[in-house]
Amino acid sequence: MFRRRFWVSLALSVPVIFFSEFIQDVFGYTAPSFPGSVWITPVLSVVIFAYGGVPFLSMARTELENREPGMMMLISLAITVAFVYSIASLFLPGTTPFFWELVTLIDIMLLGHWVEMRSVRQASGALDELAKLMPDTAERLTESGDTEEVPVSELLEGDVVLVRPGASVPADGEVVEGESSVDESMITGESRPVGKEPGSEVVAGTVNQDGSLRIKITKTGEKTTLAGIMRLVDEAQKSKSRTQLLADKAAGWLFYVALGVAAITAVAWIVATGYNITVLERVVTVLVIACPHALGLAVPLVVAINTSTAAQNGMLIRDRIAMEESRNLDTVMFDKTGTLTKGEQGVVGVETVGDWSEERAFEVAAGVEGDSEHMIARAIRDAAEERDVQRSSVSNFENFRGLGVRATVDGETVHIGGPNLIEKLGIERSDGIAAFAEEAGSNAETVIYLVHDESEVVAAFALADVIREESRQAIEALHAMDIEVAMLTGDSEDVARAVSEELGIDQYFAEVLPEEKDTKVEQLQSEGKLVAMVGDGVNDAPALTRADVGIAIGSGTDVAIESGDIILVDNNPVDVVRLIKLSKASYRKMQENLVWATGYNVFALPLAAGILAPIGILLSPAIGAVFMSLSTIIVAINARRLGNVDLSLTA
Question: Any transmembrane segments, and where (predicted)?
């Protein structure tokens, strides 16, 4: 709306300004005269006022009803007074209309609000994104044992459904037949797929992986875990408090100041000269000058440049208020999986025995795991590639469910698997391997063994969710800014403690369910802390929305992105530090611009009122408009300097 009205009003303003007597005098030209040309300026000004000024009058009514005068009332006051006076001046001798000032004031205010609204977050689509996680249909088992496809909405408690590999679970339930692993990271935050067998519980929206499951439905509709998360997101969104912008506060004060100065001006001039047209001109000048163009652009210009600068540095701003609040953060809470860590298994340690070197162990292990899509196999292959190790050629590959794999390498049999494999083969580990496995276990790392000839454990690999190197840099930088760092995770206490100690995190919360993540944020807020939440999963959505500043990882789920106030495109925790630096720099620019904008009034209002009239200095409406334009130019130049701010960690 603001964009359309701005362009239309601007086009109509060109002839108004061109035919303005003041502009002609300033630039030394004479506009062509033809029948009706004298009416071009007033007629088009009326159209611009009716079309471009009405939105401000409408919004001013809301401020008036709430008894909270702000920018809208100040703008409406200025354009209404300018409009009425200019129309009246057509019929009052000795007066000078300033239609050109009226239309440029409307144009610039429309521009300011167009720029401002572009940076305002639209209605959040978080709930829609959550709903997309639910499948539309389910395969329900009939009494004959066959399956029928039915809408998920028709499922009842007690129904049994078939969930094939790769399909989403349609409702909360209990496994009655089948074994598989289920990816629950979107709901629970657990970084590893969770094994399921008869008696195990499953949650709606999670994804089945490598086996078929028959599930008895225990919860449907509004009772499911996912529906509960949706309610939390909705409640958290509604609990957001309204923050009044700096410019509105300044405009509110200026509104009262303008009325006060106008009243004093009227009384003083009536006492000094009696009631005449000069008194009216002084009062009108005060009220029009009270609304500088610069104040209308002071914050929107900074917001626009802030948004552009943030995008160039990998940050997308969806909520300007959250961006402003970021400068005051004293606690940043990170989700672990996929945020501080890569959310995937990686080899973090290797132990070998005898004449087996690490290189040989990786050659054999990567060869045996060459064709497997299991996450552990991928981790071993990736580690081998990082070390430039070539895979061995293998044959006779076999997979033993729940135990591991077996293959032949150079005519010899090798096995790869976990503790169950060692127990099945009845092999004793060497002291070095056993000590390595014990230490890895204390750090909640998964240990995989390489067995040679079914008789000797020759190597052990420790795997864990790999910590991002950027996480260390980010936490160190946040500590340097006196900001406390917390961590939330659905993983076990051991995993959380190990990651927390390695990164120097101030406090952590382990084995946290979605609703608990939301309450952990509230807990910190109840202690008087301003909290930012950084996450990437569905389970983070309620906490992202509840936090004072929700920061979503751009490579995460759509629902996390829709719930966040700010999106980090590059999945880099260091961008949280850059965000805070940019927020502080932007706030400084806003303050500086407001000083320039209101400083103009401090100087111009007394002159407009005629305080220096006794010595022959009197500010006319036209000269006041020139000062107003200079103020606007200064504000614009100052705002542009924000684009050069240094956001490096050393800045």
Answer: 38-60, 72-92, 98-115, 250-271, 283-305, 594-613, 619-639
Residues 59-94 have pLDDT tens digits of 888 888 888 777 778 778 878 888 888 888 888 776
CA-CA distance, 28 to 588, in Å (whole number)? Answer: 41
Residues 6+ apart with CB under 8 A from 229: 130, 187, 514, 515, 538, 539, 541, 542
- What type of residue is 108? I
Sign of the alpha-carbon dihedral angle for 185, 189, 192, 198? negative
DSSP state of 69: -
Cβ atoms of 75 and 56 closer than 8 Å: yes
How far apart are the C-alpha atoms of 133 and 443, rounded to whole Å? 33
Question: What residues form DSSP beta bridges with 331?
Answer: 484, 531
**What residues act catalytically?**
335
Which conformational region is residue 221 in: left (phi greater than 0), alpha (psi within -120 to 50 degrees), or beta?
left
Among 327, 297, 130, residue whose Cα is nearest residue 637: 297
In terms of DSSP bridges, do strands 180-183 and 207-208 run parallel, antiparallel, or are they unpaired? antiparallel
CA distance 358 to 379: 15
Measured between alpha carbons, how far is residue 593 from residues 101, 246, 258, 327 in Å?
A: 22, 11, 20, 18
Summarize pLDDT for 408-442 with one digit per residue, the tens: 998 889 999 888 888 888 888 999 999 999 888 87
pTM: 0.62
